[in-house]
Amino acid sequence: MTIERQIEILAKSALFQNLPMNALAEIAVHGTEHKLQQGQILFNTNELADGMYVVLSGSVRAFRENMDGREQTIHVECVGGTLAEVSVFDGGPYPSTTMAEEDSELLFLAKEDVRRFMHKYPEIALTALAIMAKKLRTVASLAEQLALKDVSQRLAMLLLEEAQRKIRCYEMASPFRCHCRTCNWHRGSARCARLSRAACRNWCSRKSLQSAAIASSFLI
C-alpha cells in the first residue's frame, strides 16, 4: 500500500484524525506494514507487546479464549481501527488474541515511536484516553450481557452491534472498491460486480440497517 493511502487512512482513524498532514506523514514513514491472511493470528494474549497496530484494510477480531477453547469476542476493528494501544501506555503484554477476519493489511507502530509522537503531539494522548474509555465501556457492557441477559437478548445485541460496525466500516472503506463484508468477504460477489460502487454500498447499508431493525425488535 502506498504511503499516500496510509496517510489517508490515518487521517480518518479515531486516534490520529486531529493531526496535521505532516504529522500523519511522519507516522506513516515510521510504520511497518504487515499483511495477514484470513484466519491468521497477529498476536496472542500475554505475548510481549512491542507496539500497536492500525488496520489499513480488511478487519481484525480481538478475543479471549479459555482452557476449553471457547472464545469470547472483545471487539472487531476495520479500516482505521487500532489494536493494542493499551499496551503502549501500561507497558504490559497484549491483552487479547487477535485474528484476521479476512485478508488484511496493518500498519505497525513501535512503542517508542508512539510515545515520541505523543510527546510531540499531545492531542494524540487525549484522543487515546477517549478511545480506551470507549473500549472500557464496551467491555463493561459485554460483562453485563453475559451476566444479566438471556440468550435471545445477547443475540439481538450481537446483531445490532454487527450492523453498526458494518456501517462504520463502509464509511472508512476505500473509495476505489467496496470493503463490506456482504460483498467482499470472498473476492467480491456477482451482485457487487453488477452494481456501481455507490449503489453497492447503499445496498449493503440497507442490509445492515435491516439487521439492526430486526435486532432492535428483540430488545423491545
Question: What are the defining features of this structure?
Answer:
globular, 220 residues, 8 strands, disordered C terminus, 4-stranded antiparallel β-sheet, alpha+beta, single chain
How is this structure best described in words?
- With 220 residues, this protein is of the alpha+beta class.
- It has helices at residues 3-12, 21-30, 85-90, 111-120, 123-148, 151-172, 181-184, 190-194, 197-219; strands spanning 32-36, 41-43, 51-57, 60-65, 71-77, 82-83, 97-100, 104-110.
- The strands form 2 sheets. It has a 4-stranded antiparallel beta sheet with strand order 1-8-3-6. Strands 2-7-4-5 form a 4-stranded antiparallel beta sheet.
- β4 and β5 (71-77) form a beta hairpin.
* Number of helices in the DSSP assignment: 9
* Overall mean confidence score, pLDDT: 76
N-to-C SSE series? Answer: HHEEEEEEHEEHHHHHH
Radius of gyration (CA) equals 18 Å
Biggest β-sheet, characterized? 4 strands, antiparallel
Please tally the β strands and state the result: 8
Briefly summarize what is shown:
This protein is α+β, with helices and mostly antiparallel strands and 220 residues long. It is built from 9 helices and 8 strands.
Q: Topology of this protein?
A:
Blueprint: H1 3-12, H2 21-30, E1 32-36, E2 41-43, E3 51-57, E4 60-65, E5 71-77, E6 82-83, H3 85-90, E7 97-100, E8 104-110, H4 111-120, H5 123-148, H6 151-172, H7 181-184, H8 190-194, H9 197-219
Antiparallel strand pairs: 1-8, 2-7, 3-6, 3-8, 4-5, 4-7
Helix pairs in contact: 1-2, 6-9
